[in-house]
Amino acid sequence: MVTVAIFGLYVVISWRSVSLERKGFYVAGVEKPPILNGMATAADWISAGSFMSIAGLVAFTGYSGSVYIMGWTGGYVLLAILLAPYLRKLGRFTVPEFVGDRYYSNSARAAALFCAILISFVYVCAQMRGVGIILARLLSVEIHTAVIIGSGVIFIYAVFGGMKGIVWTQVTQYIIMILAYLIPACLIATEITGIPVPQAALGGTIAHGKDSGQFLLDALDKMNGDLGFAAFTSAFGPGGDSRLNMLCITVALMFGTAGLPHILVKFYTVPSVQAARLTAAYALLFVALLYLTVPAVAAFARYNLISSVNGKAYNQVSEWFREWEKTGLVVWVDKNGDGIIQFSHGNALEETRRLNAEQDQSVTRIPENAPAASKNELYVDPDITILMSPEIAGLPGWVLGLLVAGALTAALSTSAGLLLVIGSALAHDFYYRMINPKATAKRQLLLGRGIVAVTVILACYVGVYPPAYVAQVVAFAFGLAASSFFPIILMGIFWKRTTSQGAIAGMLAGISFSGLYIIQVGFFHCAPWFLGISAEGIGAIGMLVNFAVTYTVSMLTPPPPQEIQDTIENVRNPVSVS
CA 447 to CA 213: how far, in whole Å? Predict the structure, then answer.
């Protein structure tokens, strides 16, 4: 009931805020104060990847998962310093519109349009998966069905509210999201360590049970070692990421933040340049409230999961386990037929399929001489870690309801913003600016909403069959943003010599390099062939490719018209504008 009531509130706000004007639909006018716009930006930012999947990745990978926290938080610093005030002064509705006008070319606008649609589509596909995970548990249905239901919900308030409705909805959403995250975190911290502050509890000692008196992180390291996993706190060692790869992921996420179309557009919804700076500062503060809690939540979840299932008889495990089994996101395979859950390093499902094919028997029994890794009997999708935590900890049902509402909010709020970027890019930047300049506002809105509907259907399909975990798919989008938009926006503001030919070549080179690498390594699971860098981190290299190509081509082509250079000179002086 808690979840249904909160979600109903979102729909009502979006419906009552239905926007009839083009400007209101795309960017909500320029009437929101910085603190509210910062809250709305934080809600847009705290996606399913941030709310659910980061904690799961940190819980399952330990220290190396922290790159997502560092990269996504640090990106807002870049926004506040390098881009926000200048974009606000230029006063364009969308990133493709900025690129088209700054680079005095419809070809540049079309290239930016392609990049914006690709980035936003990859990002929204991850949110569809997140919605499916949440609704699968809430409704006790298979995840494919849940993704379809969630897609319909997203369509309703994204299409009818426009950006104006979503801004007001997102202010409400942020408040619910942060409460939904912090309240369970504080309760679980108290239950494990007796300390109600999660960040302090992370360095505290376990209050009761067989590990009583041990530091939480020491107990986790020992648990992981006993089960064949890398130590929770280890970095760069066996089983961990390399320094280069962690650096590249952090850079891709940071600079990708500063190039995301649905985040950049928020800085057009404030009344002044100073307000744009304040919006970025407030957004960073509001996002940090969640991100600084993630490591503690991940550690609590990992400790409780191992303690509650490993070595326990299946018929003695709490009901939460069987509820998650219904979704297909938790799978136990009794490989040795002893009825005991054995959790260790290894892929339970792939090994089971292989052995079933070899032995052709209904109950797969692992040979006594099989390698230890193949004895793992438990599969748990990392994306559900945060949602399982209250149930594992035995907290009251309303806590789970609140957490589900917050997670659903995170996925829906980001999805709506991304869908509007796609709709506005095609209806405004492509159709109105390039095909039919005489199109009425009503026709643009109708087309934009139709495009959103089609995008929801396509993203729903990818959400049903995702290439990776939610946070990893989100990281792909950030890598594409870093390798396409960030260089040409930065150079477009700070280097007057940047030409349209350079920008077009740089965008296409950067996103092509990163996109092809992500498809190879991230989607088809080829071995990382460029210095061992993962698909999540390749955007850092794509960004360098973009910079190099943009600079080289710009130097080989005629400089921009003088009026463009004068405009950029004026934009670089944002302080003088109220």
Answer: 62
